[in-house]
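Hi there,

I know you've been waiting on this one. I reran it after we fixed the sequence typo, so this is the corrected version. Both the input and the resulting structure follow.
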Amino acid sequence: MAQETSVELPRRQQSDGSRTTVPHVLFWVAAVLLVFAAILVGLSFEYAASFLRVNAAERSDVIVVLGGGLDDSRYWRGVELMKAGYAPMMILDAEEGGEKYGKSNAQLAREFLDHVHAENTSVCPVYADSTYGETVDVAHCLAPLHVSYVLIVTADYHTRRALSIFKARLPNYHWSIADAYAPVEDGSKQRLAGDNWWKNRRWAKTIFEEWQKLIWWELVERWKPHLVVQALLFANPSSTSSLGYQSAVFQPLPSSDTVLHLFQRK
């Protein structure tokens, strides 16, 4: 009989060696990727709040304090900037729709301005329920003032998105922004400085919600048709826009308290 020879064994040994080497390499590649992913996650937590904050105030014609917030820190930040010479007048956004204990936020804002004897300050009634929609209300309030440079004041975590939205929707103005640090934003404990937001449930919720709104703005709202708010005409004080607003009517007050009642619902 002829002697049988086999060459399969060396081949099998070579194949087994490659099989053990490939998983070994994949393991280390996966480990390195996990390390980098952990670093990115850590950095995102570290700077998630500070990324949302833009604080770059410029001297302007008017200060616009956006609506919202749990206290009046935005207003007092605007007063501080006005006293520092950043603008000679200020507009305070306040919700006109809806009432609480018989009064809307706009009515309460007017009474507050009367109480503190605010000068060169007006209330801009807001009917929108988002920053995107608030640009239309602000446009109505700015149109009769004939200004070019506008300084926005809003909460620190809201500054990046607000500035981006106003620049995109009202490009005929030059915008800058200042943040209003609300030390008791959650209504009880003083907020920690820096990016320690994740140590408090309320602050963490605020940051996550703001990131959600920022992503929605960048991916959806920014690409809507008719993004830019059309120019508003105030030639006829009795004319009403398609949104149901009447043109601004300025009523000079007998005292130095300048509370301008803008845009009444028809």
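Quick highlight: The chain has two domains: 15-52, 54-182+197-223.

Best,
R. S.
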